[in-house]
Amino acid sequence: MIITKRCQWEGRKMKKSTVTLIAIGLIAVITFFFLMNDTEDETNEDRNKDQQEESNEDEQEQKSDRELAKEALNTRNLEPVDYAFAPEPTDDVIESQQEIEQTIIEESEGSTFEDPYIKLDPYNRTPLTAFVVFETEKPATITYTVKGKDGGPEISNSTTQLTTKHELPILGLYPNHTNEITIEAIMEDGSTQENLISVETEPLPDYIGSISIETIKKEQVDMPANGLNFAIPSTKYVYGFDTNGDVRWYTSQYNSHVFKKIQNGNFVYLGKDDNGGPAYNRLFEIDLMGKIYKAFKISDDAAISEAEGLEQTLIHHDIAELPNGNWLMTVNDGSENYMEDTMM
């Protein structure tokens, strides 16, 4: 009896131990799976993080320099500042120009188709241009052509209004040459009248070199209406040349970098008070005859030279015309610490 009870107690004890072991085993298995899942989640997170970083790096590499610069500026919370050296309108050159035009009116009085008034370089800025004035007995339109030389192209233009008073802006004269210009008057009834005039010019100044064109496919060249391409310098003279390489236009007033055609057909031009001045401090709107329509003066306090002894300039190196007609310019801020870092 005692033996039986002891066996029963031992059996119950063994069952209890077995249950305990099973429970411990289950807990161990569950803990293992949890640990494995946590490790896998961490691994996935690390992998996703690495992939995201790689994706960001790829995206950063694909962005243009302009986009990266824009993002960098946006993070700096920059505030607009007043530019202390903004160009100011000036009327002195406009007033002197009006005096020139009044003189031309007086001197050309009574000129005829057969004996026209001819003024070489009328505004004292473009030596390879001429102003021709005359009257016709009947209303007419006019076609005028500067003859080419040495196989060079002719440069022609026409008026569209029937009138008896004619003022012709002649472009494309050759330097150091007796230029022949054909003028044809076309009356309303279709009859025509023709005259040949001659205009002598001076040699080119120093700093304008010769141009050699080795090969040109003229049918593929997109030439402007006036038949000229323009070379824009860092300093000294802007000049225009034809498909033969001949210089047929230049300005006697020095220029630096900025010579740009704008929407109305005129040009924005950076020049000086005079060619001997130290700084390019004048901004003009001109046409190819050298007539000025707008003039601005920029303070010399904003000028800067890139090296000792060099001329100073105030605009680097371009102007953009905005849709509203204003001009966006890259300039110096006048400080000693920075240069070419301001826009206005």
State the helical fraction. 25-40%
The H/E string reads: HHEHEEEEEEEEEEEEEEEEEE
CATH homologous superfamily assignment of the domain at 92-200: Immunoglobulins
What is the CATH domain class of the domain at 92-200?
Mainly Beta
CATH fold group of the domain at 92-200: Immunoglobulin-like
User: What structural class is derived from the secondary structure elements?
Assistant: alpha+beta
Question: What would a concise description of this structure say?
Answer:
The chain has 344 residues and is of the alpha+beta class.
Task: Provide a descriptive summary of the structure in words.
With 344 residues, the protein is of the alpha+beta class. It contains 3 helices and 19 strands. It has helices at 2-62, 65-74, 92-107; strands at residues 88-89, 117-120, 130-146, 155-158, 163-170, 178-187, 192-200, 229-231, 239-241, 247-250, 259-261, 267-271, 279-280, 282-286, 292-297, 312-313, 315-321, 327-331, 342-343. Strands 2, 3, 4, 5, 6 and 7 form a 6-stranded antiparallel beta sheet that branches. It is elongated, with a radius of gyration of 40 Å.
List the topology elements.
Blueprint: H1 2-62, H2 65-74, E1 88-89, H3 92-107, E2 117-120, E3 130-146, E4 155-158, E5 163-170, E6 178-187, E7 192-200, E8 229-231, E9 239-241, E10 247-250, E11 259-261, E12 267-271, E13 279-280, E14 282-286, E15 292-297, E16 312-313, E17 315-321, E18 327-331, E19 342-343
Parallel strand pairs: 13-16
Antiparallel strand pairs: 1-15, 2-3, 3-4, 3-5, 3-6, 6-7, 8-9, 9-10, 11-12, 12-14, 14-15, 17-18, 18-19
